[in-house]
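Internal ticket #5521
Category: modeling
Description: The requester needs a full-assembly model to guide mutagenesis choices. All entity lines are attached below as received. Residue total reported by intake: 740.
Assigned to: D.W.
Attached entities:
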Amino acid sequence: MTTYVLRGVRPYGEAPVDIVITDGFITELAAPGTGQGEVIDAEGLIALPGFVDLHTHLREPGREDAETIESGSQAAALGGFTCVHAMANTDPVADTAGVVEQVWHIGREVGLVDVRPVGAVTVNLEGTHLAQIGAMANSAAGVTVFSDDGKCVHDALLMRRALEYVKAFGGVVAQHAQEPRLTENAQMNEGALSGKLGMVGWPAVAEEAIIARDVLLAEHVDSRLHACHVSTAGSVEVIRWAKSRGVNVTAEVTPHHLILTEDLVESYNPVYKVNPPLRRKEDVMALREALADGTIDALATDHAPHPHEHKDCEWGAAAMGMLGLQTAFSVVMETMVEPGLLDWRGVADRMSVQPARIGGVATQGQPIEVGSSANIVVVDPQARWTVVADELASKSSNTPFAERTFPGTVVHTFYAGRPTVLDGVLA
Amino acid sequence: MRHLLSAADLDRDRALLILDTAAEMAALSDRSVKKLPTLRGRTVVNLFFEDSTRTRISFELAAKRLSADVINFAAKGSSVSKGESLKDTALTLEAMGADAVVIRHWDSGAPHRLAHANWIGGSVINAGDGTHEHPTQALLDAYTMRRHLRDGKGALEGVRVGIVGDILHSRVARSNVLLLQTLGAEVTLVAPPTLLPIGIETWPCEVSYDIDAVLPKVDAVMMLRVQQERMHAAYFPTAREYSSLYGLNGDRMRLLPDHAIVMHPGPMNRGMEISAEVADSDRAVMVEQVANGVSVRMAVLYLLLGGAKELSE
């Protein structure tokens, strides 16, 4: 196998080295200019452990017109990811060993990122019977994260049982916290703006009440809970409180909730329609602070491709969700790194180490040192780029950031010792 | 000004221009020949995704009195019920040369989307979108109040208006609050707390839970329809309790000052938000509201299409 040398790169923004990669592992950190092998110029760029996404919708099987495992893997690699967790709300739903193994196999064939299937908590996401959690955990896919994402496991007894049951497999329940009765037909954050626009509101309390209930359940049954796409300042307070009590809870935040606010809905442009909805400025600032102090453990994209016709329509008819894989790092640059909320070690932690730990992916999130798996992203914090929706690798183009100029580009990505992206294009 | 999407699109001068123009249009309806040639050769499409016979007829009559060609496009029994998108419907209408599209849609913001998504080139008039706005209703209400309370002239400075009922779901209330504020009136919204939107304290009006305290202090009271589907969704315990706490009956009507008028955008639920005694009383101006609706819609069509210059200047 080829030996690669990332020449002159600065791990975590620190002193420059040559990272030597052989047979899928980092085999040497050599003085700059001395590493032997196929040289890839990375002079002055920053190396981080490859990003791990806990929350990706790859849409295959079922909606291959919106995204496939292949196109989603390409978008992931271009965004600096070496591992994605493929959400279960496909068609058919990933609620059996058969479906998760299929997704896992296709992911391996594509070979651009580690595709880790998420298993459904309940059969067909219907919230009435537990899915075959054990069979999925024991399948070739080795599922450890279970989620009905898109729907909330709102039945308290079923949630309790799920939290208990996954303990046998070292699993975690990733909850989409949304009290269903409080959010019937909800279109946007509930507040003065929803009243003005005449839209059905999605109140913060509908998220916070479920997270509060679930942290107490997790404490009661001594299990692991993960809160998906936390979107409100109140949820942050609940999680901070639960962690202070020693509850085994982790949380993620999406890039869009770190940067976009509800006032964009005033355009009635459905590209801003997402679930949970865009919130207030105060929420955005609280989420940034929580990601900085570790109350929120991880960034997760909630990459949600939708075909053009599901967004090129009136608001109420539109699908909820936004692309996220290729813009995630830039959003973190703009909202966390440039304001000084996270240093490079912090970015590595929130985008790689923590999500790998939460997802139970041993080969990911390893430090940049000799002996680690060579899952590495090389970024250029000085470069700026402008998002062109149609040029993204995703089969869909529903990015809320079209025409926006961002700091930070992904230059090279190495997955399992092989380059998947070189100089910003697929290798 | 190309579109009329929200009452907030109208500043004071534009609102007064529409009301003054409507007054001229109203004079026309007293003549034996009620037509003007102004919009001859122009095409107005009534695009109604929601049933609303009275609003649709009102726009249709307004357009016809201005000699426009009128096409009625109802969602039921059309390509829309076969799953055609708003975009494709819009492109079809554009291809047919619609100069103005009057749209009623169940989705808040659909007229805004139609006007700004580059699907069509003509004017868009919001004839009611979801629970958002209904600007021509607010204009006809203002016109009616001006006739009764200000001799049909000027703005509505100091006029006190109570709007009672399901504010949360009411596009009529939203547009009225905006336009009445622009015209200088003082609005008090009256509803049970369950039927007021979150953030109501940011609206340019007063809010009360007590209709009896408000009625003696208003010059006009507008009763809103309570939709049947709200009656079983925990907004209030029973229709009877709503009616007894917030309905306008004869005894309550007598709390109003002598000059005050009673309004309702229709269709009324007699016995629910308004009693038959009130609906049939001399103070009730509902029939006149309907007639004024035609005049106001003529003015809007005329100014957006025929006299575009005047309104855009």
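Resolution: model delivered.
Comment from assignee: Chain A has two domains: 3-46+373-426, 50-359.
Ticket closed.
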